[in-house]
Design a protein that fits this description.
By secondary structure, the protein is of the alpha/beta class. Helix content is 38%, strand content 26%. Strands 2-1-3-4-9-8-7-5-6 form a 9-stranded mixed β-sheet, with helices on both faces. A hairpin with a 2-residue loop joins strand 8 and strand 9. Helix 6 packs antiparallel against helix 8 and helix 7 crosses helix 8. The longest helix has 19 residues. The two termini are 14 Å apart.
Length: 274
């Protein structure tokens, strides 16, 4: 049985969340289905300011609260790790892959000046359609998704107005864009980027599971918040999307598992199921 060392980079700063549970469950399910031994290590980036090392095979960096622009001192170690990872991959045939979720995605975009990282006009919360670009339709991580595909989105910040020169210099590609809003004169956010062949990220939450979201939305407190901010029709639409196997459940079953397929292939491991 192949053994894989996965580092989960915790960006939640001790804030209660569903994301870490979701990441653990995806990794456990993937290990079982592919007959792998996955050794998981959680590295507390913001709470304890722990620094990742290159001792792992695969990295998943979580979402989290707060500003991705006004940071708190931990980012020097974090970005030092990202630079070390990029340097390692540039000089090794045994590549190590990194997946960035929401807050992590925004921090990277801000650091490399890949777009305008700014507050949204209003918080995005719920299930939404996202549109793959032509590059996204052919990208290995996104290739099994329809156009549009549905995601769980929860953010006060956004990355808009792509810096084409910096994206091109980095070799990065925009893989997905925010939903079409023809009646609103607002820039569409970049929702997924392939930063390098080994580093990919999303501004939404591909780890989110339908069951957890349904439970969350059915609590009286959250239900009233959603209705107050978005209306009862929006709440009902969210619940319908969560119950539809072709929407949120499909997205969760595709993106991170396919990222893991790519990561393990790059490690030159012989997996019959990949």
């Amino acid at each position: 049985m192949q053994k894989i060392k996965v580092a989960i980079l915790d960006m939640y700063k001790d804030t209660p969340n569903q994301g870490m549970r979701n990441i653990h469950e995806i990794l456990d399910k993937y290990a079982t289905e592919n007959q792998l031994s996955i050794n998981k290590t959680v590295i507390d980036i913001r709470g304890k300011q722990e620094a990742p090392t290159l001792d792992y095979d695969v990295y998943i960096s979580s979402g989290g609260p707060g500003s991705p622009v006004d940071l708190e001192g931990w980012e020097d170690k974090y970005m030092g790790f990202v630079k070390d990872l990029m340097d390692y991959n540039a000089n090794s045939s045994n590549k190590k892959h990194l997946f960035l979720i929401c807050h992590s995605f925004q921090v990277i975009c801000h650091h490399f000046n890949l777009g305008n990282v700014c507050l949204r006009k209003s918080e995005s919360f719920g299930t939404y359609p996202v549109y793959a670009t032509d590059e996204g339709l052919s990208d290995s991580t996104f290739k099994n998704l329809p156009r549009p595909f549905y995601v769980v989105d929860s953010r006060k910040w956004q990355v808009i107005e792509p810096n084409d020169a910096n994206l091109e210099a980095m070799g990065a590609q925009i893989l997905a864009l925010e939903k079409l809003r023809p009646h609103v004169d607002l820039e569409r956010a970049m929702m997924a980027i392939r930063f390098t062949p080994e580093i990919v990220g999303t501004q939404f939450h591909p780890e989110a599971d339908a069951e957890g979201m349904i439970f969350y939305l059915n609590t009286e407190e959250k239900k009233q918040v959603v209705i107050a901010n978005h209306g009862e029709d929006k709440l009902n639409n969210m619940l319908a999307h969560l119950n539809d196997p072709d929407k949120i459940m499909h997205t969760q079953s595709c993106i991170i598992p396919q990222f893991l397929n790519d990561a393990i292939q790059s490690l030159s491991l012989k997996q019959a199921s990949i």
